[in-house]
Amino acid sequence: MAELKIVVSIKQVPDADDLRIDPVTNNLVREGVPAVINPPDYHAIEEAIRLKERFGGKTMVLTMGPGQAEVALREALAMGIDEAYLISDRAMAGADTWATSYTVAKAVQRLGGADIILFGRRAVDGETEQVGPQTGKWLGIPVVAYVREIRSIENGKAVVVRTTEFEEEVIEVPLPAVFTILETANKPRQPDILSLIKAKTAKVTVWNKDDIKAEPTKIGLAGSPTKVIKVSPPPKTRKPEIIDGKKDPEKAAEWFLNKIYESLKEAESSLKEYVKPKAKVKVNSEIWVYIDHIGDRINKASLEILSEARRIADLMDTSVAGVVIGGESVKGIINEVYEYGADKVYFAETKGYDRYDNEVYTKALAKLAKKYKPEGIFFPGTRAARELASTSAIEIDTGLIADCTNFDVDDKGVLLATRPDFGGKEMSTIVCPRHRPVMVTTRAGVFMPLPRMPGRTGELIKEEIEDLYSRLKVLEYKNIEKRNILTEADIVVGVGRGIKSPENIKKFEEFATALGGVLGVSKPLADMGWYPKDRQIGQTGTTIRPKVYIALGVSGAVQHLVGILSSRKIGAINLDQSAPIFDNCDFGVVGDIFEIVPKMMELIKKKGE
Questions:
Q1: Neighbours of 45 (CB within 10 A)
Q2: Do residue 462 and residue 444 come from a single domain?
Q3: Which pLDDT does position 127 carry in this prediction?
Q4: Whether the Cβ atoms of residue 307 and residue 339 lie closer than 8 Å to each other
Q5: Which residues contact 10 (CB under 8 A, 6 or more apart)?
Q6: Contacts of 480 (CB under 8 A, 6+ apart)
Q7: Cis ω before 176 (30° cut-off from 0)
Q8: Predicted structure pTM score
Q9: What H or E segment, with its residue span, contains residue 509?
Q10: Do 42 and 114 share a structural domain?
Q11: What is the pLDDT of residues 563-584, one digit of tens each?
């Protein structure tokens, strides 16, 4: 085999820890905020270096950005990358993932191609997981996202382990190929001082749009199908009732506990049926929802977004359809899609491909979309659906808006999709003005499925997808039977830095159990290893939607707030009366959790006697 050629594409992002909201304008302050390598990209850099160490070859790093992006490239060189390339041109500013992935693909072609092209799993500024798969699609080469291990490379093929929330596959893929690397794949190395010094004077090749032969209509803001039309701080949707519990912790404990019980009772009695909104406009095309499934089981996230798509379709005075792709064994889920709100189901039959395969499912979805021309396609926030949305957007030639948490429709029938950016420190409202269908990925756990309507049916349109072929060969497969109890619990107790030490966690676990709930933690505690990472609540952890969320010693950083805002009710106890959590809860106590929680435990025990 010829010398292995490995390219890593990285991104610079503002350091989220230094971002802040201007208290006067409520806008995000970006001036003077340092840019850093997108944290997940370090794992892609590390994987490239490890591949070179194992199999030999040459490594190259590239990024698109202004001149100061050289700093990120030099950091990659210091880690051990051989060559660095900066794609810099004012015409490329403002690019969305469609235009960015096109630019990266043109740069890879300018390099003469590569055997392996690596990306980090996601971009932390907008939680997109799109550029890697989309670059592969532009280049016409296989894509495997969410790779936790590259096992072997030989005879022009790689064997990789792909891990999603629900399954793990060992896949053989011909090279060249694109892989996105999970953060669990490796631990990035720290460059030594000599390498850092050497990297400061290393050559960085700079190319503009003409050097990579990029078409002007496909780059930058002008070439981007999606546009940001509004940026705003996260909305305040609650009216907090806060009391001072420092003088009388016992009274505060009783008040707080009663609020928890009242909230649970209110949640139980709340309206559980769908109320159809009044139409704002009439559109001629349908709203579609891709139904992600594992064999004959629908992923819950698909039913969540089906309910929101139902609402948007009603606002547009049109119908909502589910899109089911697969073979014989998946036909059983069609009736379930009707029962959760779909008027119609498009069944793309892919014989022999009951499980998700990116190449086959991209072909199937694109065929349906090009033939029936929907207004929009909603995708649930699962890994497989995000990958499919990314490659399908290039195949269909349309825009894709990532990680949305809120939707509306304007009076012209344009879908307004809002997502949190920069760890939730601001909200961006994005549109896709010229391209149809508008495609969106959504965050799991934000929306609630409609009540199931047994026996409800609708129209079925079946398309048999012919000439099926995939370059991906699954060598091993297993389901991951791992439940996320945070998303299933009615009561979640979250603890933050205020618990002071890991030894204190057990006390709060016991409190959560006494309430019939489960314990979760803020990001700092998970990062410090005080509690399992899968119990982290927040944008980079788990988004929860319990009946009651109780924040104990949690300050309420925006990253955390993004993960809890869909909770029916939020209660908080914190010694700091200026903690942001008090602006984003329904009831709270300014007090000491080590005084108030034990008193609540006593009251719970008395209640149970």
A1: 27
A2: yes
A3: 77
A4: no
A5: 37, 38, 41, 44, 45, 61, 62, 63, 72, 73, 76, 120
A6: 163, 164, 165, 166, 167, 168
A7: yes
A8: 0.86
A9: helix 505-515
A10: yes
A11: 888 788 999 999 999 998 998 8
Lowest mean pLDDT among 143-147, 160-164, 371-375, 424-428: 424-428
- The count of domains in the chain is 3
Same-domain status, 133 and 44: yes
The CATH number of the domain holding residue 598 is: 3.40.50.1220
* 56 domain-assigned: yes
Q: Are 403 and 539 in contact (CB under 8 A)?
A: no
- Decide if 273 is inside a domain: no
Is the domain of 186 the same as that of 302? no
Lowest pLDDT segment from 14-23, 153-162, 199-208, 375-384? 14-23
Asked if 390 and 320 touch (Cβ cutoff 8 Å), the reply is: no
Q: Which pair of tokens denotes residue 437?
A: 């269908």
Structural domain contains residue 229: no
Strand 415-421: give its sheet, edge to edge. Answer: 227-232, 426-431, 415-421, 406-409
Identity at 513, one-letter amino acid code? T
The answer to whether residue 233 sits within a structural domain is: no
Identify the domain containing residue 260 by its residue range.
Answer: 239-267+481-605
Both 261 and 406 in one domain: the answer is no
The number of CA neighbours under 13 Å toward the Cβ of 106 is 23
Tell whether the model's pLDDT for residue 7 goes beyond 80: yes
Residue 82: half-sphere exposure toward Cβ, Cα within 13 Å: 15
Last residue of a domain, one of 435, 451, 477: 477
100/186 Cα distance (integer angstroms) = 26
Residues with Cβ within 8 Å of residue 88, at least 6 apart in sequence: 64, 65, 66, 67, 69, 206, 207, 208
- The span from the CA of 445 to the CA of 380, in Å, is 10
Q: How many CB atoms lie within 10 A of CB 44?
A: 31
559-562 contacts at long range (C-beta below 8 A, 24 or more positions apart): 559/16, 559/423, 559/424, 559/523, 560/494, 560/496, 560/522, 560/523, 561/234, 561/424, 562/234, 562/405, 562/420, 562/423, 562/424, 562/538
Name the domain boundary from 477, 509, 525.
477
**Whether residue 10 sits in one domain with residue 82:** yes
Residues 53 and 196 in one domain: yes
**Are residues 410 and 489 both part of a single domain?**
no
